[in-house]
Amino acid sequence: MSSPTPMWWWAQVTTTRTREAAKTCCAAAYGSDIAALLLGDSYHPGGLSLTRRLATQLGLPRDAHVLDVASGPGATAMMLAGEFGLRVAGLDLSAANVALAQGRADAQGQADRVSFAVGDAELLPYPDAAFDAVVIECALCTFPNKPAAAAETARVLRNGGRLGLTDVLGDADRLPAELTTLAAHIACIAGARPMHTYADLVDAAGLRTTRTERHDAALARMIDQIEARLELVRLTARAQAEALGLDLDRAKQALAAARAAVADGVIGYGLLVADKP
Ligand SMILES: C[S@@+](CC[C@H](N)C(=O)[O-])C[C@H]1O[C@@H](n2cnc3c(N)ncnc32)[C@H](O)[C@@H]1O
After folding, report:
1. What CA dihedral angle connects 72, 73, 79 and 82, to 10 degrees?
2. Which protein residue's CA is at the shortest distance from atom 12 of ligand 1?
3. Within a 13 Å sphere around the CA of 63, how many CA atoms are in the beta-carbon half?
4. What's the whole-model pTM score?
5. Rounded distance, CA 141 to CA 158, Å?
């Protein structure tokens, strides 16, 4: 699965077939135990405290209906329901993540406010104007067809609805070779875009960006956390990691490159809020 030369893999992601393969590969990686071992409960920089900040910026009334696109293991959806009193639908391409998230919601007695389904962010299985808000955390960067995902987000928002997005920021032209592989794409780096590109994408879909913030330190902390947990994977789940194409020997170098890229401002983490006029 790893790419032999820089940008080789991205160059392949141009046809529908390779786009579908990229999505499946990403969902398989995030649905694995390795993701949970490396990332913990919440699969984005800043964890639930950044989600809390995003939810506060959205300023939604209790009972508002929210779609969490690429909901991963469901921690965000459950927090939005538990702390903010929102009704949340989570959608993820990974059936394993959806099962895990739904199991947690059931176990925590939140099944009346939170539900999860398998589906693709680029083709949302909901009618027009179905939601008061859409949340997308650390996922748009992994979608091969970002304009389609942005258009679908705008479609399912009601007029006056809001989008809350956090994502990896990246300047593709300045990425070092170690951060342009398939693994780097799955790790949300190779597909990352600068903040202004996310804002342009969202605005081109008919939304209006009203706020952007940078949270680069959260990404640096996540890189440190992954490095610390890599040893655990090496000791307990090496075979599974390799089956997923994660080269544990190269991972340390990639993490060092990622840390340097954060320090140089080549990658970072951003928050964006938009509304549907
Ligand atoms: C980095 S994780 C973020 C998960 C969650 N938003 C969080 O912050 O904890 C990216 C998630 O996107 C999901 N994903 C990838 N491609 C997708 C797609 N096309 N449609 C829906 N989910 C997708 C993966 O399965 C994974 O759960």
Report:
1. 130
2. 70
3. 0
4. 0.92
5. 24
- The mean per-residue pLDDT over the stretch 250-261 comes to 91
CB of 94 closer than 6 angstroms to any ligand 1 atom: yes
Per DSSP, the three-state class of 203 is helix
Substitution site in 38, 79, 94 for ligand 1 pocket (most atoms within 8 Å of beta carbon): 94
Return the pLDDT at 22.
Answer: 79
How far, in Å, from the CA of 198 to the mean position of ligand 1? Answer: 17
Mutation test residue for ligand 1: of 39, 92, 166, the one with most atoms within 8 Å of CB: 92
- Measure 72 CA to ligand 1 centroid, in angstroms: 5
Q: What is the DSSP letter of 141?
A: G
Q: Is 34 exposed, middle or buried (0-12, 13-18, 19+ CB in 10 A)?
A: buried
**pLDDT averaged over every residue in the chain:** 91
- Please give the distance, rounded to the nearest whole angstrom, from the Cα atom of residue 92 to the centre of ligand 1: 6
Q: DSSP code of 7?
A: T
In this structure, CATH architecture of domain 1-277? 3-Layer(aba) Sandwich (3.40)
User: What one-character DSSP code corresponds to residue 234?
Assistant: H
- Structure tokens, 274: 């938009």
CA distance 184 to 190: 5
